[in-house]
Write a structure and sequence with these properties.
alpha/beta; three-stranded antiparallel β-sheet; 12 strands; globular
C-alpha cells in the first residue's frame, strides 16, 4: 500500500492496513503512553501479509508494551545521573551527548529513551538551555567529541543544524562531531545537498552513526542517501540493536553487516536491548547474543564485525560482552577457541602442527 503521509495515530495505522479494527481498539492504551510515528518509506517496507514482519515489529505498537517487568526502568542507561545541565550527558571524560531535540521521524518500539522522546517527551532545548549546554562544553577542555542525539538530530532543518553547529565551530577543543540518526533509512529524500552542507558547516571532522536493524532497511534509496554523505567526506558507522523476532538469526545479521559495508558504513555497535519499560518481548539472553556474534566471526570478513555491547544499568557505561575467545590456563599458556568452537593451545605444545 502506498502511504503518502507519516503515520502518527492508531487510526492512521488502521487506515494503512497495518492493524485491523480489533487490534486498533486494543492499541489505544499503548498510544496513550508511547509515541507512534512511521514514515512513508518505512510503511512501504512492511509486508502486510506477514504477521511476523521484522520491520513492522520495530515500528507498529504492540499490547506487549504495556507489560512492565520488575527490572525495567524509565532511564535504563542512567542518562540523568550524568546530566550536569539540560541537554548534556557527560558519562565519559572526552565526549558528551548533546540532546538538542527529543523528537524522531519514527518511534522504535524498543527505544531506551521512550519515556523522554515524542510529543509527550522533553521537547527541544530552548535558547537559554542551548546556551547553557554550549557553555558547559566550552568550559570543559577535555571534551574532544560531541555526539548529537536525542531524539534524532537530523529532523532539524539545514538552517537549524547550521545554527547549532556554529556554536560548536567556535570551541577549539571539540574536534569531532557525531550524529546518531535513522533519517537516511526512514526518510532518505531528506538527505539532500542542503542537509549535507549543513552537517559539514562546523569545519569539524564529522561522523554519522546510522541506526538500522534489518537488511531490508538498506533500500536502494537509503543506500543512495548514505552515498551522498560518504561522497561528501562524512564517515559513517553503524549502530544496531539485537532484537528477538527482528535480527536474532545469524543469516539476517550477516546480511545486515554486509549491507552496511557494501554501503561504505563500518559496523560499529551491536547493542544488547536495554531495560526500557515494556520491551521484554524484544530481549533475548546474553548467552544467545554471544552465540550469534560468535557465528558472525566465522561467517564474515573482519570488516563486517560489530562489537556486541551492553549499557550497564544505572549509568555505568558500555561493556563489551562478546564472549572471549581466549582463556588463561596458567604459566603463560592460553586456550584459544576458533570460529568453529574448537580449542587450541597457545603457544602450541612442542611438536604440534
Amino acid at each position: 500500500m502506498n502511504v503518502l503521509r507519516p503515520i502518527k495515530t492508531v487510526e492512521d495505522l488502521e487506515r494503512a492496513s497495518l492493524v485491523d479494527a480489533a487490534q486498533a481498539a486494543s492499541l489505544e492504551a499503548v498510544a496513550a503512553r508511547y509515541a507512534i510515528a512511521l514514515t512513508p518509506a518505512i510503511a512501504a517496507l512492511i509486508d502486510r501479509s506477514d504477521p511476523n514482519d521484522p520491520i513492522a515489529r520495530q515500528f507498529v505498537p504492540d499490547q506487549a508494551e504495556l507489560v512492565v517487568t520488575p527490572e525495567e526502568r524509565a532511564d535504563p542507561i542512567g542518562d540523568a545521573a550524568h546530566s550536569p545541565v539540560a541537554g548534556i550527558v557527560h558519562r565519559y571524560p572526552d565526549r558528551v551527548l548533546l540532546k538538542a531535540v527529543h523528537v524522531c521521524p519514527v518511534y522504535c518500539r524498543f527505544c531506551f529513551r521512550r519515556e523522554m522522546v515524542g510529543p509527550q517527551g522533553l521537547g527541544t532545548l530552548d535558547a537559554g538551555e542551548l546556551a547553557g549546554a554550549f557553555d558547559y562544553i566550552r568550559n570543559h577542555p577535555e571534551i574532544w567529541e560531541v555526539i548529537l542525539t536525542g531524539g534524532d538530530p537530523l529532523v532539524l532543518s539545514p538552517r537549524r543544524l547550521e545554527e547549532l553547529l556554529a556554536g560548536l565551530s567556535a570551541i577549539d577543543h571539540v574536534k569531532i562531531v557525531r550524529f546518531h540518526t535513522r533519517v537516511p533509512v526512514v526518510d532518505p529524500q531528506k538527505v539532500d545537498a542542503a542537509l549535507v552542507a549543513a552537517l559539514k558547516s562546523s569545519g569539524k571532522t564529522v561522523y554519522v552513526a546510522l541506526h538500522a536493524n534489518h537488511p531490508r532497511e538498506l533500500t536502494a534509496e537509503a543506500r543512495a542517501a548514505c552515498a551522498r554523505l560518504v561522497d561528501a567526506g562524512i564517515v559513517m558507522v553503524s549502530q544496531s540493536v539485537l532484537l528477538k523476532g527482528v535480527n536474532d538469526d545469524p543469516a539476517v545479521l550477516a546480511a545486515l553487516m554486509r549491507g552496511f559495508v557494501e554501503t561504505r558504513i563500518k559496523p560499529y555497535y551491536l547493542h544488547h536491548p536495554d531495560l526500557a519499560p515494556g520491551t521484554s518481548h524484544f530481549r533475548l539472553a546474553i548467552a544467545e547474543g554471544q552465540r550469534l556474534v560468535a557465528e558472525l566471526r566465522g561467517r564474515l570478513s573482519g570488516l563486517c564485525q560489530p562489537t556486541y555491547i551492553l549499557d550497564i544499568p544505572g549509568g555505568y557505561g558500555k561493556a563489551d560482552i562478546g564472549k572471549s575467545a581466549i582463556r588463561d590456563v596458567g604459566e603463560g599458556c592460553y586456550s584459544v577457541s576458533d570460529y568453529q568452537g574448537q580449542s587450541h593451545d597457545y603457544p602450541p605444545a612442542k611438536g604440534s602442527s
